[in-house]
Design goal:
The chain is of the alpha/beta class and about 700 residues long. Helices cover about 30% and strands about 15% of the residues. Belongs to the prokaryotic molybdopterin-containing oxidoreductase family.
């Protein structure tokens, strides 16, 4: 299968110039891009930068056809005011001045009536650019609006990894091309971070490296595997424990390495005595032979690179699963070797200072923090979600689409339908969230503004300069924040009054990095630490310098730990002393005999690209992947309309019978717009917002459900 074909750069014609930028979307790859800019000011083809050592000329197909998104006929072009009932789709075109005046007036009224915390600026990762994404926090802090606990995506993964290593970094991800075995764990890299496959396949071609893929269904990435392990959702920790059991049992464990670098290898070995392949097989659904083969392969291959994704942590024991998977690399001593160790994210290597950008000097620790994953509960008056304070009555939403992507969708929609809630949405398309707004204002796309990007899955800071002019009626995120600050009387506060380019320079200067002009010439800056730091040869980042097999689930610092006022989350007392499988997931039962995961689609990125014609054509329609044996038991044929549900609600969609899923497991790929579904309700009707222990997160792949053929 052609998973990642570089697009050869043709010699540019005299009428075309090549602009250099970075992909802004919520993907760890943060690809360096080359964009054709035509004489008429429009963009043409988008390619991966060949001279970028991680991107290596390869990008995903959806970004390669970005012109389709930029010039989409349905792109929002004018500010709009709601005319009829919420969600009715009746709009009146208004001026930018009127739109901003009305937003500011609504915020002032909400604050006067219910206090400053009644206003909740809400955003996420529709753009990963620092200036356009994070400036909303500067307005938040200046006005003492409700805080935003950004839990939905990264928390379980980041928490589990830092419990182990003390820091969010690891071996140079380019070392995947120089390894003897790549373990791609819990991520469908073909669909979500294609450059992982670029380097893994290079290692296979040039070194004969093995590729192991661990996931919950036969994904496109799984089809590239030499050893494919399809386990039951939420059981990854059991597999990791069995692999470590085999390592101790069969002599693969590097005892000298652990004696120097780990906190309690003897305690771990004793704990793992009962975590046999037979024990893990009963939990994971894998065969004993598959588990033994995995343990032997990684145990006998010193240069094994464990590439740990996000997907397998979006379950109620996700932090435990990440900690256990990272522990395998330490038991084997893999960190010592080039092309060895465990990598999840490099977020801690960049050391960029965003204090002025986000207005940290104005932050008030007494202001409540509301969990973004629990937006449905917060907007419907749940006292715990609101931190036992007043209601949210006004919102500004940038860079996210919570009516579609947030869990407990029925609660979310009920909250947005409140007559006493004012919502302004700054967007590129009329999303499910924009449809529920009072004011909608049109946003620029990444080639139409300046920004700076920090990678997660690689090692570069990348500049994203404006390459083309936006439509005259479209405005940047920064423009909206600055104009609201002026109307709300805080434009004189620290951090306001700068252009995007000026703010980029200020961030870089305060971070002791080269300035904007240097980046404009050189395009990116490599922040990868030296080998001994990246591989923890100088010690791990805990105060004792050791890898922690015994995590401190209650006290360990983490990149996005909840503030003290929120405290520990989820069933944290049940978390284990050593790596282990924890029985906190939604286990299938008699009333809900299936496990459902909401996995990414190859042609969408969260809810982005679901509006473009090519992506929609390639994905087809919202479908539920069902094993033929499960379908036969209920007389379900391929293409039939089925219902899937649980205590949170039910959704109707079409059946796709396939052996790519195992019996008892259902997969709904992609975040289709709610209106693309038969009843106008999306798959997140079925997902829950209970926080993952100990620091939060959304368990969107951890759902017990029932299934039946639709009677209609």
């Amino acid at each position: 299968m052609n998973i990642a074909t570089p697009i050869e750069a043709k010699s540019p014609k005299s009428s075309v110039r090549i602009g250099h930028t970075a992909c802004p979307h919520d993907c760890p790859s943060t690809c360096a891009l080359e964009v054709e800019v035509m004489d008429d000011g429009r963009i043409g083809r988008v390619r991966g930068a060949n001279d970028h050592s991680y991107t290596s000329g390869v990008i995903c197909a959806k970004v390669a056809r970005y012109a389709e998104r930029l010039y989409h006929p349905d792109r929002l072009m004018h500010p709009l005011r709601r005319k009829g009932a919420k969600g009715a789709g009746e709009w009146q075109r208004i001026s930018w001045e009127d739109a901003l005046d009305e937003i500011a007036e609504a915020f002032v009224k909400a604050e006067a009536r219910d206090g400053s915390e009644a206003v909740w600026p809400y955003y996420y990762a529709g753009t990963m650019g620092w200036v356009q994404r994070d400036s909303i926090d500067r307005l938040r802090h200046a006005k003492r609006y409700s805080g935003f606990f950004s839990s939905i995506c990264t928390n379980p993964a980041w928490t589990g990894f830092t419990m182990a290593t003390g820091v969010l970094r690891g071996p140079d991800p380019r070392e995947m091309a120089r390894t003897d075995c790549v373990v791609i764990w819990g991520t469908n890299a073909v669909a979500t971070q294609v450059n992982v496959m670029t380097h893994a396949i290079k290692a296979r071609k040039e070194r004969g490296a093995s590729i192991v893929v661990i996931d919950i269904y036969d994904s496109p990435t799984m089809k590239q595997a030499d050893l494919a392990l399809i386990l039951k959702p939420g059981t990854d920790a059991a597999l990791a424990c069995a692999a470590m059991h085999i390592a101790f049992r069969d002599g693969y464990a590097d005892r000298a390495y652990m004696a120097k670098y780990a906190d309690d290898p003897a305690g771990l070995e004793a704990h793992l005595k009962t975590k046999t392949p037979e024990w893990a097989a009963a939990i994971t659904g894998l065969s004993i032979e598959e588990i033994e083969a995995f343990g032997k392969l990684v145990g006998t291959t010193k240069k094994t690179f464990f590439r740990l994704g996000y997907g397998f942590t979006r379950q109620r024991n996700g932090a435990v699963a990440m900690h256990a998977a990272a522990s395998v690399a330490t038991v084997l001593g893999s960190w010592q070797y080039e092309g060895g160790g465990a990598f999840h994210s490099n977020s801690d290597i960049f050391r960029m200072n965003n204090a002025e950008l986000t207005g940290k000097s104005m932050k008030d620790a007494d202001i409540r923090m509301i969990d973004q994953s629990q937006i449905g509960r917060a907007l419907t008056g749940d006292a715990v979600a609101l931190r036992h304070r007043g209601p949210v009555t006004a919102m500004l939403i940038q860079n996210t689409n919570p009516v579609n992507i947030a869990p407990e969708q029925r609660l979310v929609k009920r909250g947005f339908a409140r007559d006493d809630l004012f919502v302004a949405v700054h967007e590129q398309f009329m999303t499910d969230t924009a449809e529920m707004a009072d004011i909608v204002i049109p946003a620029t796309m990444f080639v139409e503004h300046d920004d700076i990007y920090r990678a997660g899955g690689q090692n570069h800071i990348l500049l994203g300069p404006k390459l083309v002019e936006p439509p005259e009626t479209v405005r940047t995120n920064l423009f909206v924040i600055e104009e609201l600050a002026r109307r709300l009387g805080v434009a004189d506060r620290p951090g306001f009054g700068f252009s995007a380019r000026e703010m980029i320079d200020r961030v870089l200067q305060s971070s002791e990095l080269p300035g904007y002009d240097h980046f404009l010439e050189h395009k990116w800056f490599d922040r990868q630490p030296e080998f001994d730091d990246a591989h923890f040869i100088n010690g791990f980042a805990h105060p004792d310098g050791r890898f922690h097999f015994r995590p401190d689930w209650r006290n360990q610092p983490a990149p996005n730990r909840p503030p003290e006022a929120v405290g520990l989350l989820g069933p944290y007392p049940e978390l284990p002393a050593f790596p282990d499988q924890v029985d906190v997931i939604e286990v299938a039962d008699a009333e809900h005999p299936f496990r459902l995961a909401t996995s990414p689609a190859r042609n969408f990125l969260n809810s982005s690209f679901a509006e473009t014609k090519t992506s929609r054509q390639k994905e087809g329609r919202p479908e539920l992947m069902i094993n033929p044996a499960d379908a036969q038991a209920q007389d379900i044929a391929h293409g039939d309309l089925v219902q899937v549900g649980n205590a949170r609600g039910e959704v109707r969609l079409h059946a796709r019978l396939t052996t790519e899923v195992k019996p008892g497991v259902l997969i709904a790929e992609g975040l289709w717009p709610n209106k693309a579904h038969v009843d106008g309700e999306g798959i997140n009707v079925l997902t829950g917002a209970d926080p993952i222990a100990p620091y939060g997160g959304a368990a969107v792949h951890d759902n017990k459900v029932w299934l039946r053929k639709d009677a209609a």
